[in-house]
Amino acid sequence: MPVTIALAQRLLPHRTALASGLMLGGAWGIAAIGPPIAQLLINTLGLTPAFAITAALLAVAGLMSLALPSKLLSRVSPH
Asked: Which of 4, 8, 13, 39 has its CA 20 to 30 A from that of 29?
């Protein structure tokens, strides 16, 4: 999670507190609502389809990360 907060702060350099709050709030929100949604999917569709849906969502998130600016992801040397 610290990496995502740092990336968000780089995206909003003049609003770092807002960036941190959004990332932490989003993470806690997903952590709170994810298990009940997963349980609903498992009860409705079964275990294998629920895992397939979760994997598809993870793949979409990975593809979305490719849209991040490359300069944001580059490591800056302290020297």
From this structure: 13
